[in-house]
Amino acid sequence: QVPLVESGGGLVRAGGSLRLSCAASGHLFSAYALAWFRQAPGKEREFVATTGHNAGSTAYADSVKGRFTISLDSAKNSIDLQMDNLTPDDTAVYYCTVSPSMTSGYNIWGQGTQVTVSA
């Protein structure tokens, strides 16, 4: 069973919206931290947003703050990323990841989903 499975990527015009979802299997949904990263062509993988099950555990990269919203859906065991007002700079492969404990770091990753934003 694949532990993390992303969906919802696609092609959208600048200014549009997409919603990514990451289905987490088993106990992974109860992880200490759950996050989204992205990797654009020719660039390093970068942090996008993170959240957890405790209040105040949500944080965003400056580049997406105010445009992206990360949330947890306990009914579906999913980590969702609502992306609004997209720009071509948001074009990347988006990865879902979890940090099972405070000290483990993000060590379980999904396969990624492509997001392409046209001008």
Question: How would you characterize this protein structure?
Answer:
It is a single chain. By secondary structure, this protein is mainly β. Helices cover 0% and strands 49% of the residues. The chain contains no helices and eleven strands. The protein has strands at residues 4-7, 10-13, 18-24, 33-39, 46-51, 59-60, 68-73, 78-83, 92-99, 108-109, 113-118. The strands form two sheets. Strands 2, 4, 5, 6, 9, 10 and 11 form a seven-stranded mixed beta sheet that branches. The protein has a four-stranded antiparallel beta sheet with strand order 1-3-8-7, with no helix packed on it. The protein is globular, with a radius of gyration of 13 Å. The N and C termini lie far apart (38 Å). The mean pLDDT is 95.
Short description:
The chain has 119 residues and is an all-beta fold. It has strands spanning 4-7, 10-13, 18-24, 33-39, 46-51, 59-60, 68-73, 78-83, 92-99, 108-109, 113-118. The model has no long low-confidence stretch (mean pLDDT 95).
What average pLDDT do the residues reach?
Answer: 95
Approximate shape: globular
Question: What radius of gyration results from the CA coordinates?
Answer: 13 Å
* Beta content: over 45%
